[in-house]
Amino acid sequence: MGKAIGSERLGDLYTGGKVKKRREWRGVEDTLYDYKCWLGIMGMLAKYLVRPHFLKGFLRYRWMLNYISVPAMIDKHTVGLRGNHLKIAHEEYDLVAEDVAKLLDTAFKADRYCGNDEELSKKIVVLDENEMFAIMNGFPTLKGISWETAAVYVAVLLQGDAVTGYLDAIQEMGLPGDVCPMPAAEAGTAVLDDFPLFGACAVQCNTTCDGSLLGNGIMARRYEKAGIPVFQIAAPLRHTEEGVQEYAAQEIRNAIKFIEDCTGEKWDWDYYFENTKRYNEENRLRYSWMEMSRTDYPQVIGANLALYAETTYMAIAGRVPDFVEADRRITKLAQESFERKEMLVPEYRHRAIIWGVQAQYYTDFLPWLQNCWGILPLVDMLSLVYWDQLSEDDPEQAIYDLGKLYQEMIMRNRTHGGWEVLLDDLWRFCEYYRADMVILWEHISCKALTGMHGLFEERAKEHGIKLVWVNHDLMDPRVIPKQNIRDDVNRYMRTVLMEEPIDPSLEVLDDDKLW
Ligand code: SF4
């Protein structure tokens, strides 16, 4: 219990009758810093909660109750960290928390059931949670808002079983229980009318799979009933092929025209390129963090890479200057730590690539891997996205860039496009990042991945890579609880590799008391 990493048994924090017995003691300086950040988050939440439309939204929507666990969510992703690594995590999570609070504030202000600000509502384009927001980069006076992000995606991140009620609701209406819980939960929220209603129009995308596509259909029906017209971007699935790029570009032109027609606003190239410059810088900086992970001293890894990359790459896309400023500070902190050869945990035993679709109800599984077993989650599939820099001055090329971004969204870029991007690329990344292990999330309801189980096993054997399967059901911890996920690793480490954990107190935890 002190300043040094690994100086206490972290599992002991979770014994007793509460979520956590006490705050983690990290030495005087780091404990005070962490506590100051905790107070900052509480203050930020209070600042928004006292706004009348926000309070109304908090009381109206049952998924809002999950937001009382925001400080606990940050705690579970910073566990065990010290010094610059702790600062990097707070730079990320605190900024994302504030961004989500702003999203909720705008949504409730415009919401017909809460603030009912009609002028604001006319300036909003409703987007999917799993869609690139870059389509808004050329509209300076409009806002792109996804209520699904707040009600489903973030809610599950905060509280593991946040959407089980919505899953039950849609299954009672006849949806089979083996549909992916993400589109199923969104559809459940829509049929219960438990979402804020606003917007001049909605732009959806055939995001990741048929489940997602059908979920969008249910949502579109609800929007259109409320007088909100919907456009669906049909981005090609064979995204690596040149022949589909013209089609993809035309879909972007059509979407822009649809937004212009619905809102009366015009696409502004100067604004687009201003955002793109920031977006390119964000991508370059993130890439520099991932390059550090090729060395013996990785600095920004695991959930700190995955969750932040999802936000900046997909939802922010250069539109919010605060994010690029945070990225510069994170880069500086990471470089300092890299030069000082600082480690995240006392012992590095395995270098892992995290592949497949993560359990949204257990994103802190990645810090658990490093704290319990010394397995470094270097990079994950969702962060390994389109890296080419977007044009900063050519409007014609920019349309093709946007088309490519929509085809190669997070998750979609691997779950579609052929086995080259899902199977072959994995072993190339193992070599590139010098990984000896793959942690393969097996999302049991993801039809896009489950059919390839045997192929992964064969290839892992060929490449001499240790392959550890971890089963989950994305947003439904009732089907596969968190301890089962941990046990998939515990069993492999003890029986196949005959290793002992570096922190045995973390092997078995009582999740009933945890968020
Ligand atoms: S996890 Fe799989 S099934 Fe679910 S939305 Fe993504 S691609 Fe579709």
β-strand number: 8
Please describe the biggest sheet, giving its number of strands, its sense, and whether it closes into a barrel: 4 strands, parallel
Bound compounds:
iron/sulfur cluster
Shape: globular
Topology record:
Layout: H1 28-49, H2 52-60, H3 70-78, H4 83-110, H5 118-121, E1 124-127, E2 143-145, H6 147-158, H7 164-172, H8 181-191, E3 201-205, H9 210-225, E4 230-233, H10 245-263, H11 269-292, H12 302-316, H13 321-339, E5 350-355, H14 365-373, E6 375-380, H15 395-407, H16 412-415, H17 419-432, E7 437-443, H18 447-450, H19 453-463, E8 466-472, H20 482-496
Parallel strand pairs: 1-2, 1-3, 3-4, 5-6, 5-7, 7-8
Structural account:
This protein has one domain (10-159, 267-513). By secondary structure, it is α/β, with parallel strands linked by helices. Helix 14 (365-373) links the parallel strand 5 (350-355) and strand 6. The radius of gyration is 22 Å and the shape is globular. The strands form two sheets. A four-stranded parallel sheet has the order 2-1-3-4, sandwiched between helices. A four-stranded parallel sheet has the order 6-5-7-8. 52% of the residues lie in helices and 8% in strands. It has helices at 28-49, 52-60, 70-78, 83-110, 118-121, 147-158, 164-172, 181-191, 210-225, 245-263, 269-292, 302-316, 321-339, 365-373, 395-407, 412-415, 419-432, 447-450, 453-463, 482-496, and strands at 124-127, 143-145, 201-205, 230-233, 350-355, 375-380, 437-443, 466-472. The site of iron/sulfur cluster has 15 residues, from helix 8, helix 9 and helix 18.
